[in-house]
């Protein structure tokens, strides 16, 4: 296969998924991993992709620049609703649940008042606002008690920094639903915001079980700051079944049409 053909094939892979691995490309193209690495270097020099450890991502997938809440909220709405429905099925009445910032976790808002006696710990200003609005709009529902951290507001409207981290570290949740900018089998759970990484680490340390919520576009993406290894999570909730590397690390709670299901660890 000529170099130009390999380059076209690599870019074609990146149009269908947010990230590619050197090992997988070498097998798919029938060449050595060294050849693939040289191809990735060439394509990165052209600005066609961004090289990361072990592979490459689409331009803009790896960044320390964080997209705003409203921009992300309009993307993948149906996938986020399916993920939220599957995640909410893990809740039981009387639980204390911590929920990190982000648009995927925000999709949980209309489902939480249906579960009696919940206490919600969050650093998400939009989620807290929406739960307050739903309490007023539907007085018959069992609205959760909401504990909102203080802190500095990020572009994704999450409260982070020492105030947020200290507040979260002082509380204990049965379950934590954590959104992520990137979820990678090797790099783990990552975010482009250093302060948010620190705050999310506090969420992970103070919960009985960590459950990661991420649509398929986040799988294989590696961002600036690491929050946690993926095997620290009890489950990954996503809208499409990832490859076997993820099944080996966690239980996968996915939503193949029509209904979500939970697969136990192998």
Q: Could you give a short account of the major beta sheet?
A: 8 strands, mixed
Distance between the termini: 38 Å
Structural class based on helices, strands and sheet pairing: alpha/beta
The helix content, as a percent range, equals 25-40%
Specify Rg, calculated over alpha carbons: 19 Å
Helix and strand run: HEHHEEHHEHEHEEEHEEEHEEEHEE
User: Which blocks of ≥5 consecutive residues have pLDDT under 50?
Assistant: 62-67, 254-266
Question: Could you tell me the strand content as a percent range?
Answer: 15-25%
Mean pLDDT: 82
Outline: elongated
Number of strands: 16
Secondary structure tally, helices: 10
Widest β-sheet, arrangement of strands: 6-5-4-9-12-14-15-16
Descriptive tags:
266 residues, alpha/beta, 10 helices, disordered C terminus
Write a structural description.
The protein has 266 residues and is of the alpha/beta class. Helix content is 35%, strand content 23%. The strands form four sheets. An eight-stranded mixed β-sheet has the order 6-5-4-9-12-14-15-16, sandwiched between helices. Helix 1 (3-16) packs across helix 3 (33-45) and helix 2 crosses helix 3 (33-45). The model is unreliable at 62-67 and 254-266 (pLDDT under 50).
């Amino acid at each position: 296969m000529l170099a130009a053909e390999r380059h076209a094939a690599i870019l074609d892979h990146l149009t269908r998924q947010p990230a590619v691995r050197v090992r997988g490309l070498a097998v798919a193209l029938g060449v050595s991993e060294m050849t693939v690495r040289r191809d990735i270097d060439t394509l990165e020099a052209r600005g066609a992709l961004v090289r990361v450890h072990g592979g490459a991502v689409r331009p803009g997938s790896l960044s320390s620049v964080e997209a705003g809440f409203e921009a992300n909220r309009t993307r993948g709405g149906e996938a986020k609703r399916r993920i939220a429905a599957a995640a909410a099925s893990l809740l039981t009445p009387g639980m204390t649940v911590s929920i990190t910032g982000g648009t995927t976790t925000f999709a949980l808002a209309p489902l939480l008042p249906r579960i009696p006696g919940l206490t919600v710990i969050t650093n998400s200003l939009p989620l807290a606002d929406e739960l307050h609005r739903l309490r007023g709009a539907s007085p018959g529902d069992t609205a959760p008690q909401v504990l909102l951290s203080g802190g500095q507001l990020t572009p994704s409207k999450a409260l982070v920094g020492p105030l947020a981290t200290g507040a979260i570290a002082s509380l204990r949740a049965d379950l934590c639903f954590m959104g992520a900018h990137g979820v990678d089998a090797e790099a783990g759970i990552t975010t482009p915001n250093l302060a948010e990484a620190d705050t999310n680490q506090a969420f992970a340390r103070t919960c009985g079980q960590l459950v990661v919520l991420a649509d398929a576009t986040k799988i294989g993406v590696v961002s600036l700051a690491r929050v946690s290894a993926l095997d620290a999570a009890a489950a990954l909730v996503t809208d499409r079944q990832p490859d076997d590397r993820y099944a080996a690390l966690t239980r996968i709670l996915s939503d193949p049409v029509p209904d979500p299901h939970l697969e136990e660890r192998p």
